[in-house]
């Protein structure tokens, strides 16, 4: 057992084995580099194996009494605010002798912006420089969620990349859930008259959604033959992504792992989402947990664990790591 402690890296999971393989490869690299002094396990919230509980149980079996749980996700939407804390809280409640600390999402970070810059410039290096940056439009594509704070982060990333890299214009679109979608966003952008468009998916790993983004790009490119379309790579295991994970771990001990509570729809009345204030912090992922990837077999898991939460009567169930008066009594995790 490592004397420095235990780290549980919590992945989203995917039906696509490429995404699962890339996540696992990143975890293995982290074990050899930034997390070499820790015992490290990982698991997935949806579809893939091992599931999160399996990873927590392995660290428990090693004898660890303190576990750091790191979300392997870019922004804090439903998975980071509800589903992951639900899993962490269930394990913590059933193991009161284990101190489980929950980190925050990767969020908007200078290191991730540096990784994004490299992916975009790698794509531009494959074409000639006959078209200037100021004549080039950057389309930043986000995942898309039902959380307006997470969706708005894509705008901020896009603006910082535009100003930092000198593009003439930056637009945003999403792969799903919210709008504009990639094909609609690109067609609208064509009205602006730019000669070159760089499509950059602000994603961690491969998968069905990346395929969809590139397919929509090809469809629109076929409609506008006089415009050059370049498909940039996603973040993947860029060294700055790994460094950001390590930074999130360090923040847990310093108490700096706070999320953006001011614009959280579960804490504040955000326009259009007023009814979400105080929504119970429960998971919505159990029907797809561990059911398998498209290339594998489905495996039913029944660990016999309950997934309900009792919040001791306070009016709000979300604890994002701040010292709010209505913080969890039942959550041993910090952050949400």
Your description of this structure?
A four-stranded parallel beta sheet has the order 2-1-3-4, with helices on both faces. It has helices at 17-32, 52-61, 78-94, 110-124, 148-165, 182-189, 208-223, 239-254, and strands at 6-11, 39-44, 66-71, 99-102, 136-142, 169-174, 196-201, 228-231. It folds into two domains: 1-104 and 257-336, no CATH class; 110-231, Rossmann fold (3-Layer(aba) Sandwich), CATH 3.40.50. It is elongated. The protein has eight helices and eight strands. Pfam families: CbiX. GO terms for molecular function: lyase activity; metal ion binding. This is Sirohydrochlorin chelatase.
Give the tags.
336 residues; alpha/beta; Rossmann fold; 2 domains; four-stranded parallel beta sheet; 8 helices; elongated; disordered C terminus
Derived structural class: alpha/beta
Strand order of the largest sheet: 2-1-3-4
Report the sheet with the most strands, covering strand number, pairing sense and barrel closure.
4 strands, parallel
Computed over alpha carbons, the radius of gyration is 21 Å
N→C terminal distance: 27 Å
Strand content: 5-15%
Globally, the shape reads elongated
Along the chain, the helix and strand elements come as EHEHEHEHEHEHEHEH
